[in-house]
What we know:
Layout: E1 5-11, E2 14-20, H1 26-33, E3 52-55, E4 58-61, E5 74-76, H2 89-96, H3 106-119, H4 125-132, H5 143-162
Parallel strand pairs: 1-5
Antiparallel strand pairs: 1-2, 3-4, 3-5
Helix pairs in contact: 2-5, 4-5
Bound molecules: FE2/S2 (inorganic) cluster (2 copies).
Amino acid sequence: MTQPIDINLNVNGRDVRVSVEPRRSLADCLRHDLSLTGTHVGCEHGVCGACTVMIDGEAVRSCLVLAVQAEDRLVETVEGLATDDCLGVIQDEFRNNHALQCGFCTPGILMTAQSLLSAEPEASNDRIREVLSGHICRCTGYIPIVTAIAKARDRLSAASRDH
Ligand code: FES
Ligand code: FES
């Protein structure tokens, strides 16, 4: 067995130190070592998007990232989107627009949406659709999801204009 390595990362604003085998994926580290089970693992080869988290603000597939590659980086997972008892704006619009279609895909989709709207606050609906193409949903479709992200975009832009 390969010797574990101690790594430091910041997860959802909290500094953590964890001991991992060099080949452990970030997804497995989050789920099994840090008990952050909101990040899901589907295909395990970068296709379905279920495992999406953010590293330094950028959406990444945590099944394709080794935990050791996240050393000293800022990792954000779905557990970090809500503050206290208050849902984040994107989560709230998912609720308002019935976009939470299944609990397996939604966390990854939320993280992609969060990363998109942070980097591109005026992202068009076409751009939202393009980015969502990296998430495979086999249940119903994408229309409520696109609507929810577009509504969140509009709310966030209005809030930033008011400040
Ligand atoms: S589990 Fe990572 S992309 Fe499917
Ligand atoms: S949202 Fe998960 S299968 Fe459609």
